[in-house]
Design a protein that fits this description.
By secondary structure, the protein is of the alpha+beta class. The chain has seven helices and 19 strands. Strands 1, 2, 3, 4, 5, 6, 7, 8, 9 and 19 form a ten-stranded mixed beta sheet that branches. The chain binds 2-OXO-4-methylpentanoic acid. The site of 2-OXO-4-methylpentanoic acid has 8 residues, from loops. One of its GO terms (cellular component) is mitochondrion.
């Protein structure tokens, strides 16, 4: 058999939009509601491989009603951001991590994999077209949504022989309308987000729709988000659609511990999660802090809160970056998480948020984490 074509950024075709949007003022940016003037599409067939990538005016896709993405959820996505640095450069934050994860998601649902560096280059070209729409300022960025769908027509359940990558971009501000503000969570133990041997570590659209009902149920009771609690042990796994971290201080030894759940296949392999683990392992004094990926339960959190050992908690994801937590509803009561007096987070949460922002906005360098477009 002949080898099929790899994804090749040098084959890019550009059809420019007639219209050039004016940037909106930052205070009008609502997460993921407005998009830039162009999108990227690349089609794939089992027979030929990846076709010439295209940048074209943002607009509707035409899909047959029998298309497999609409019936059997052959869909996966990524989320990453481009930042306008203080010097005016535009950088992507750790795009290699997103591309690697995108290929893992694709492989799991029988969609084609691709050359990761080629898609990064193509995303760079897409941003270049609309670079006047990349916002500037603390908390502002261009959210990039690479997506892959199966596009075979017909209701037979099988391996798609046609697929497409598309990438759209959205100028965004803080994910929550309230900005960097501590949220209250309701622990959910009646529904399960992911399970051993499942696909909870893949960024499949099918993992997200089932997250909304528990979130609405939490909202009805006055909580902003739900906290996913797994199995008879009541292990804490994620918050809403983000990874989650807790910090404890042992009342006997005074030693502090930052904890998040281990990557056992039920946890999304978050880029922000990974960045926080790397930064805290580099920056925190090991005599004072331990950084652990381990199982921990809502019962441990409740007990340690009672002893005054729960010191901080926060969600971590690309969209919100760091989202401080101030309370967790569990068994009819609220577990309170302390905040710095008059502030919206604990001390470590605040440090982590600024360490990451400094790298994202180009004030600090960290290896190859920032990639200039
Ligand atoms: C995140 O970035 O935290 C996400 O999970 C993306 C979300 C908008 C679905």
């Amino acid at each position: 058999t002949m080898a099929t074509a790899p994804l090749d950024s040098s084959k890019l075709e550009i059809c420019r939009n007639q219209k050039k949007s004016q940037p909106r003022p930052n205070n009008e940016l609502v997460f993921g509601r407005t998009f830039t003037d162009h999108m990227l599409t690349v089609e794939w067939t089992a027979e030929k491989g990846w076709a010439a990538p295209q940048i074209k005016p943002y607009g509707p896709l035409s899909i047959d009603p029998s298309c497999c993405v609409l019936h059997y959820a052959f869909e996966l996505f990524e989320g990453l951001k481009a930042y306008r640095t203080d010097e005016g450069k535009i950088t992507l934050f750790r795009p290699d991590k997103n591309m690697e994860r995108m290929n893992k998601s694709a492989a799991r649902i029988c969609l084609p994999t691709f050359e990761t560096d080629e898609l990064i280059k193509l995303i760079g070209k897409l941003i270049e077209e609309d670079k006047h729409l990349v916002p500037q300022g603390k908390g502002y960025s261009l959210y990039i949504r690479p997506t892959m769908i199966g596009t075979s027509n017909g209701l037979g359940v099988g391996h798609p022989d046609k697929a497409m990558i598309f990438v759209i971009t959205s100028p965004v501000g803080p994910y929550y309308k309230t900005g960097f503000k501590a949220v209250r969570l309701l622990a959910t133990d009646f529904a399960t987000r992911a399970w051993p041997g499942g696909v909870g570590d893949k960024k499949l659209g099918a993992n997200y729709a089932p997250c909304i009902l528990p979130q609405l149920q939490a909202a009805e009771k006055g909580y902003q988000q739900n906290l996913w609690v797994f199995g008879p042990e009541k292990y804490i796994t994620e918050v809403g659609t983000m990874n989650v971290f807790f910090a404890f201080k042992d009342s006997k030894t005074g030693k502090k511990e930052l904890v998040t759940a281990p990557l056992d296949g039920t946890i999304l392999e978050g880029v922000t999660r990974d960045s926080i683990l790397a930064l805290t392992r580099e920056k925190l004094d090991p005599k004072e802090w331990e950084v652990n990926e381990r199982y921990y339960s809502i019962n441990e959190v409740a007990e340690r809160a009672k002893k005054g050992e729960l010191i901080e908690a926060f969600g971590a994801g690309t969209a919100a970056v760091v989202s401080p937590i101030k309370a967790i509803g569990w068994q009819g009561k609220d577990i309170e998480v302390p905040l710095l007096p008059g502030e919206q987070s604990g001390a470590l949460t605040k440090d982590i948020a600024s360490w990451i922002a400094d790298i994202q906005y180009g004030r600090e360098k960290h290896g190859n984490w920032s990639r200039v477009v």
